[in-house]
Request: fold
Amino acid sequence: MGRFGRTIVTAALAVAVVAGTAGWASGDTQRAVTGPPPGAAAWRADRGYGRPLPDPADADPREAARFFAGLDEGARRGLLRAHPLVVGNLDGAPLPLRYEANRLAVLATGEARYASLAAPGRRILAFDPRGRGQVAEVFGDLERAAHVAVVVPGSDNDAESHDAPRAPDTGPAGMARSLWTAAGGAGGDTAVVAWTGYTTPVGVGLDAAGGRLAEAGAVRLARFTAGLDAVGAPDPVLLCHSYGSVVCGLAARHTDARDLVVLGSPGMRADTAAGLGTKARVWAARGPSDWIADVPNVEVAGLGHGADPASAAFGARRVPASDVVGHTGYFRAGTRSLAAFAAIVKGEVR
Reply:
């Protein structure tokens, strides 16, 4: 095998491990879930409100916010009951309405694997049952928060595993909950969103080594952050783990993020922090025992994710992570990394 072939194989095999917690399981090619949620056609056909409803496929979130602002409470609730999947996923719709719509949408699936998402007190900001399922959950009071963070996880995450039993500070919900607690919890002014809002790779394979799923996820992440802006939320801090950092790298120039923090990153498909095209401050963390350090930082024929964000040459600010254990220990209580994440989110680091 020639040098070029060896490079491609190295990228495909080594970079594919960046998925997160699935270990060395066989890869499974995924079809990205894109576009509006089920029920969009019925929503578009609904003419009971005197004017066309905002098209969930392409309506600007600010347009959706203005539409709902012009409705009385009865009309809002009528839409919620008739179209819960659309209302629950419509960026720009009022937050309490989305929470209730998604509770109804979860219950309507009748699937036991999603039942816990409808438990009292949970704030589900997005829910899409297609494929393996996608979900976004809020910890804290997003309507009144002075600081907002969005946790973007890596591979092997979906609506079913979003809050699956595991180490309490790993997985999307676990990481977000840990950060919210470190930032003040119920007594603070910070809200944290666990955003499992894209189709993630599964196991080791070309999905994890390539950018196809990250590209689809970046579009969804950019729209999601525009929805936060449309309802008056502060510019968010994006915290992106593993393959999630590839998503964030591709979305960076299309979001209004205040800070962009990557941890355990295989690369962001950019040569430098400046190359991301964002006004956000860019931060990077990598623990001393994180195996991501052994992944070659290459990008050849679409395989691999490029430069190491934790290297000095990339130009990101460094997050202290000397006490982080493994690839998933960045949000563990008491770590320097978690304390630094909370300080960045709260605007305490200049």
Notes: The first helix runs from residue 3 to 15. The first strand starts at residue 123 and ends at 128.
